[in-house]
TrEMBL record, chain A:
This is Fe-S cluster assembly protein SufB. Residues 222-464 form the SUF system FeS cluster assembly SufBD core domain. Signal peptide: none annotated. InterPro entries: Fe-S_cluster_assembly_SufBD (IPR055346), SUF_FeS_clus_asmbl_SufB (IPR010231), SUF_FeS_clus_asmbl_SufBD_core (IPR000825), SUF_FeS_clus_asmbl_SufBD_sf (IPR037284), SufBD_N (IPR045595). Belongs to the iron-sulfur cluster assembly SufBD family. It comes from Nitrospirillum iridis. Coiled coil: none annotated. Residues 150-213 form the SUF system FeS cluster assembly SufBD N-terminal domain. GO terms for biological process: iron-sulfur cluster assembly.
UniProtKB/TrEMBL annotation, chain B:
This is Fe-S cluster assembly ATP-binding protein. Residues 5-250 form the ABC transporter domain. Keywords: ATP-binding, Nucleotide-binding. CDD domains: ABC_FeS_Assembly. SMART domains: AAA. The lineage of its organism: Bacteria, Pseudomonadati, Pseudomonadota, Alphaproteobacteria, Rhodospirillales. Belongs to the ABC transporter superfamily. Ycf16 family. GO terms for molecular function: ATP binding; ATP hydrolysis activity.
TrEMBL record, chain C:
It comes from the Bacteria. This is Fe-S cluster assembly protein SufD. Residues 173-397 form the SUF system FeS cluster assembly SufBD core domain. Residues 21-163 form the SUF system FeS cluster assembly SufBD N-terminal domain. Pfam families: SUFBD_core, SufBD_N. InterPro entries: Fe-S_cluster_assembly_SufBD (IPR055346), SUF_FeS_clus_asmbl_SufBD_core (IPR000825), SUF_FeS_clus_asmbl_SufBD_sf (IPR037284), SUF_FeS_clus_asmbl_SufD (IPR011542), SufBD_N (IPR045595). The lineage of its organism: Bacteria, Pseudomonadati, Pseudomonadota, Alphaproteobacteria, Rhodospirillales. PANTHER family: PROTEIN ABCI7, CHLOROPLASTIC. Belongs to the iron-sulfur cluster assembly SufBD family. One of its GO terms (biological process) is iron-sulfur cluster assembly.
């Protein structure tokens, strides 16, 4: 790989502590940049980049081959154009595909984590140290491309639960990784999934053994820090027979003028009687009020209910990103398996979101629930796109879908594009959707009781999203409520 | 005694429409209860909307002084925090927003404005318990979303309960009696009577004399075609019951 | 191959008296466009659910200009049970002997496209547009005839206009029909179209509708084509302020059918009702695709469409409501409900909202299910045999949308009659 002339360099000179935090603007409080020495691949993507990443991570040959196969597929693919998104052409050769905090082979424990990084996570409100212990949440933190710290590992290990970075899983649990990697989201599933399969850097790996109920929330925080870098994490979560796990992820990124690409893949596998709850609060930098900068969030998330009576539930609060393209889905393969999707998506200023879910009913007596709340403000464009498919064998399938859109202001848009495809007569599928503007009567009622316009709006919007927010774990729900208010700043008045 | 509220030659309309209020004059002093009666379409609800600052109305002339300040210059929420309370004729449903949460947010918004410390959850709960005794409201109602799924009577009781909690200086009750059966009317009236206070003025807006059997006003005014055409003391209401509004309207 | 075949036959469409140069231009442009685009493809979003192979797999030369033995007796069973102004088109061409236009009030023009080309070419010209897509472009190139209705401002046409499209094409053949309806300010009219016949023909129609300020047009389309027939149709409607267009579509014939209804609410206060039902069995394939654009404030859309699928039938609903910026006060409701009666029947539904204004009230709903077991049991417990009980429930499901369409009595009964005759053909019929 050395012949490919990859260089290691430290980006940007170190600075005083004060200088570490650069202009964050008013609205987005996670817009700071952490100055940290980074290991980076030079911008651009070719076979050499893929080999570089694999070598950096000391991967086995089979994984390199897997990546290369994905890369060659990706080269023949085109970005999807069916979403209601206005995306400037992306120069995939301008992005950096690997950026890691320079701490050599990664920290063994929290004590080894760069204090600068710990400060960053403190600032993000993510407890990595003692606070994690208090909160009872096990955290894996992914900084740019690399997992920097995983807490609570030992305690989880006693129960046989594996919770580690993806890279570590490849080293320590290669059989599990090999067995499940790409089994839910195949390499060629879509353009961005193929790209991720070729260049994914790190992410989280979870395995919960049969019959084990994970006693704490598992959590990953993702942070894009380096300039011009993309983030391509890969998460694989397996709940073995009768296991239970609840997983949370949160995302932030610095405020930068150029767009940055985030193309993650998340695969969930729930075996017989297993249950997985997966919650996301996505607050990547959305760009400024003129649409400059912001993250392109092109994510493939899919869960397979492989066994009978398995359950997978997705809950998401999407407030960030310039563009969101994301459809967390459930393959309901096992008989009696259950899928759920709860979503709040806000677009303000020039944000665009095309998000929703797919519920594929394959087994008998499978059921799914979709609750989607879209809020459009400013010049934001918000699309719910969902598919409910009942396959010929899915006798007794049930789906209920409710998707509501709230409009705030004259220049935004709200779109609803449901696909309902039913191949079995015993299926019962119901879809309801409404779109309306924020109620002036409700606003006045709140104001008459003394609430300011902003507080009234925040209250009404939170009420509108209630059915989704209650699906989030408590700490997340509180954070999400605040985010909703922040995201809508300046949208009335 | 200085007036709490002074309305002078108030003219107002729905934006783009014709004047509905055509010159209202009204003085309200602290501790007084005023009843404003009149036929449908006289402008009663327009008056309450203008006092509370509801969007969609425009004042085309006249003035309103509240505690000596120009009330019309204040946005609706600031009026509320300054002690103007409107009990809505049709209380609005707000799905997903817990009744208690809503009330605490409103109460603390007012306290912040007055520079009084905000109530924490425990203090708030204690205050709620005290006031609950005033009105026959079940805990269950408090746990539900604001006015969602409430019966007509429950909504009206919830309005008076909010009034009790927010302790306004000027309470405007817009057709609070409409849609109530006799038992509910008694409960609501008892609640309002207990909230009578030397420092608080109450303006009752009603179509029917019935309410005034339970809440006895100090002054009664007849509003007709956008003007107050007659005023009197509490006996005036009973007189109106006999004679009707018609002769007053034409006399104006 | 196929395209050349159609190009070659394109001269056949020229009426005996020749055609004006503007029409020739439109025909040439239509043919060029179709030659470039070809048939719709499943890769196109609007066609992803529709299996067009029955159409694309065969060659459909123009239907013979002199239709075979179709006489008054052939057409009689399909006539309305009430007085009407009747036009009959056989294989896409006006058949004067079978028609009875009757006496028209002052200010109404009704007749064939061929006659309109002589007397009112402006009406025909307005039915052609630049940039028509695929099948409509082919129609522009090849249409041989059609009907034209023009109602002047303030005129009410009391009796309904009745148009019967009868197809009798032994071998695969195509009839391209172009229709034009225009209702002036405050004018009123009702048009009932019925398509039926025998054989494996392809009827490809384009109908262009304009309703001026305050006018109202009621348009009923009863599609009872032969079991082997193919029927594709596009209705394009443009409504001015306070105009109203009420459309009811029954799709219950043909092996492959597709109905696109595109309505533009172009003036304040315009309203559209788009109701209908698709009743499918055997291996029928039907797509109902209504698209409403709210381009002006305070317009209203009411849409209820129901589907019943039996055997291996496949129903598709593609409903779109678009609200343009500034179209405040929009009120739009869209509902699609489907009933699957057999293990191999299937349905795809996509009720879509695209909203770019904020002061709107829009809702849509879609359901798919089978007959309610509790209702079936209730009927049986009252002594009704299962087969009859099923038919009763299916009829109730579909009848509801007919009753809700606001049709006048003789026409409503006539539509109910079509529903009942379809039910008679169901497995275990009455």
């Amino acid at each position: 790989m050395s012949d490919l002339a990859m260089t290691e360099r430290a980006d940007a000179p170190p600075d005083t502590l004060d200088g570490l935090i650069k202009g964050t603007g008013d609205g987005y409080k996670y817009g700071f940049v952490t100055d940290i020495e980074a290991d980076e691949a030079p911008p651009g993507l070719d076979e050499g980049t893929v080999r570089f990443i694999s070598a950096k991570k000391g991967e086995p040959a089979w994984l390199l081959e897997w990546r290369l196969k994905a890369f060659h597929r990706w080269q023949r693919m085109a970005p999807p154009d069916w979403a209601k998104l206005n995306i400037a052409p992306i120069d995939y050769q301008a992005s950096t595909y690997y950026s890691a905090p320079k701490a050599n082979s990664g920290p063994k424990s929290l004590d080894e984590v760069d204090p600068e990084l710990l400060k960053t996570y403190e600032k993000l409100g993510i407890p990595l140290g003692e606070r994690a212990a208090l909160a009872g949440v096990a955290v894996d933190a992914v900084f740019d491309s690399v997992s920097v710290a995983t807490t609570y590992k030992d305690k989880l290990a006693d129960l046989g639960i594996i919770f580690c970075s993806f890279g570590e899983a490849v080293r320590e649990h290669p059989d599990l990784v090999r067995r499940y990697l790409g089994s839910v989201v195949p390499q060629g599933d879509n353009f961005f999934a193929a790209l991720n399969s070729a260049v994914f850097s790190d992410g989280s790996f979870v395995y919960v053994p049969p019959g084990v109920r994970c006693p704490m929330e598992l959590s990953t925080y993702f942070r894009i820090n380096a300039a011009k870098s993309g983030q391509f994490e890969r998460t694989l979560l397996i709940a073995d027979k009768g296991a239970y796990v609840s997983y949370l992820e949160g995302c932030t990124a610095p405020q930068r003028d150029e767009n940055q690409l985030h193309a993650a893949v998340v695969e969930l596998v729930a075996l017989e009687d297993a249950e997985i709850k997966y919650a996301t609060v996505q607050n990547w930098y959305p760009g400024d009020e003129n649409g400059k900068g912001g993250i392109y969030n092109f994510v493939t998330k899919r869960g397979a209910c492989r066994g009978d009576r398995a359950k997978i539930s997705w809950a998401q609060v999407e407030t960030g990103s310039a563009i969101t393209w994301k459809y967390p889905s459930c393959l309901l393969e096992g008989d009696g398996s259950v899928g759920a999707f709860y979503s709040v998506a806000i677009t303000n200023n020039l944000q665009q979101a095309d998000t929703g879910t797919k519920m594929i009913h394959i087994g008998r007596d499978t059921s799914s629930t979709i609750i989607s709340k879209g809020i459009s403000a400013g010049r934001g464009q918000n699309t719910y796109r969902g598919q409910v498919k009942v396959m010929p064998r899915a006798e007794g399938a049930r789906n209920y879908t409710q998707c509501d859109s709230l409009l705030i202001g004259k220049k935004c848009g709200a779109h609803t594009v449901p696909y309902i495809e039913v191949r079995h007569p015993s299926a019962k599928v119901e879809h309801e959707a409404t779109t309306s503007k924020i109620s002036e009567d409700q606003m006045f009622y709140c104001q008459q009781r003394g609430l300011t316009q902003e507080d009234a709006l925040s209250l009404i919007v939170n009420g509108f999203c209630k059915e989704v927010l209650k699906e989030l774990p408590m700490e997340f729900a509180v954070e999400a409520q605040k985010l909703l208010a922040v995201s809508l700043e300046g949208s009335v008045g | 005694m200085t007036n709490l509220l002074e309305i002078r030659d108030l003219r107002a309309r729905i934006v783009g429409g014709r004047d509905i209020l055509k010159g209202i004059d009204l003085d309200v002093a602290p501790g007084e209860v005023h009843a404003i009666m009149g036929p449908n379409g006289a402008g009663k609800s327009t008056l309450s909307s203008v006092l509370a600052g509801k969007p969609g109305y425009e004042v085309t002339g006249g003035s309103i002084l509240y505690q000596g300040r120009d009330l019309l210059a204040l946005p609706a929420d600031e009026r509320a925090r300054e002690g103007v309370f409107l009990a809505f004729q049709y209380p609005v449903e707000i799905p997903g927003v817990n009744n208690m949460y809503f009330l605490r947010a409103a109460l603390n918004a007012g306290r912040r404005q007055r520079g009084v410390p905000e109530l924490d959850a425990a203090q708030f709960l204690k205050a709620v318990r005290d006031k609950l005794k005033l009105l026959d409201i079940s805990d269950d109602l408090l746990r539900r979303a604001v006015n969602v799924g409430f019966s007509g009577g429950e909504k009206k009781r919830n309005e008076i309960f909010q009034m009790a909690m927010l302790e306004p200086k000027l309470a405007i009750l817009d057709e609070t009696d409409s849609g109530l059966d006799i038992d509910a009317l008694r409960v609501v009236s008892d609640g309002v009577n207990r909230l009578r206070d030397p420092n608080r003025a109450i303006v009752l807006i009603t179509h029917y004399q019935r309410l005034l059997d339970y809440i006895v006003p100090d002054h009664v005014h007849v509003l007709s075609d956008g003007r107050i055409v007659a005023s009197g003391d509490k006996t005036f209401a009973a007189e109106l019951e006999r004679t009707g509004y018609a002769h007053l309207g034409s006399a104006a | 191959m196929l395209i050349t075949q159609e190009s070659a036959s394109y001269q056949d469409a020229v009426p005996p008296g020749g055609q004006p140069p503007w029409l020739a231009r439109h025909r040439a442009a239509g043919m060029a466009r179709f030659a470039a685009e070809g048939y719709p493809k499943r890769s196109q979003e609007a066609w992803r659910f529709t299996d067009l192979r029955p159409l694309t797999a065969s060659v459909f030369p123009p239907a013979p200009p002199d239709p075979v033995a179709v006489d008054a007796a052939t057409v009689a069973p399909h006539r309305l049970p009430c007085p009407s102004h009747r036009l009959v088109l056989v294989n896409g061409r006006f058949a004067p002997a079978l028609s009875d236009i009757g006496v028209l009030p002052e200010g109404v023009w009704l007749g064939s496209v061929t006659d309109a080309l002589r007397e009112r070419p402006d009406l025909v010209a307005a039915s052609l547009a630049e940039g028509e897509a695929s099948l409509a472009a082919l129609n522009a190139a090849l249409f041989a005839d059609g009907f034209v209705l023009a109602v002047e401002a303030g005129v009410t046409l009391e009796a309904p206009v009745e148009v019967i499209h009868y197809a009798d094409m032994g071998a695969p053949a195509a009839a391209h029909v172009r229709n034009r309806m225009v209702v002036g300010a405050g004018g009123r009219a009702t048009v009932i179209e019925t398509s039926t016949g025998v054989g494996a023909g392809w009827l490809n129609t384009v109908t262009v509708v304009t309703v001026a300020t305050g006018g109202a047009l009621r348009h009923v389309q009863l599609q009872r084509d032969a079991a082997e027939a193919i029927h594709t149709s596009v209705v394009r409607g443009d409504l001015a302020g306070d105009a109203r267009y009420e459309s009811f579509s029954l799709m219950a014939g043909g092996r492959l059918s597709r109905r696109d209804i595109q309505v533009n609410l172009g003036g304040p206060g315009a309203s559209v009702a788009l109701n209908g039902a698709y009743l499918l069995r055997g291996s029928q394939e039907a797509t109902f695709a209504p698209v409403v654009t709210h381009a002006a404030p305070h317009c209203r859309t009411d849409e209820v469409v129901k589907g019943v699928m039996q055997d291996r039938a496949h129903g598709v609903f593609l409903g779109t409501v678009r609200v343009h910026p500034g179209a405040d006060g929009t009120d739009a409701r869209q509902l699609n409900r489907n009933l699957l009666l057999s293990p191999t029947a299937w349905v795809d539904t996509k009720p879509e909202l695209e909203i770019l204004a904020d002061d709107v009230k829009c809702s849509h709903g879609a359901t798919v299910g089978s007959l309610d077991e509790a209702s079936l049991f209730y009927l049986q417990a009252r002594g009704i045999d299962p087969a009859t009980a099923r038919l009763m429930l299916v009829e109730a499901f579909a009848a509801d949308v007919i009753d809700g369409a606001g049709l006048d009595e003789p026409i409503r009964d006539h539509v109910h009659g079509h529903l009942r005759s379809w039910l008679d053909g169901l497995e275990g019929g009455r």
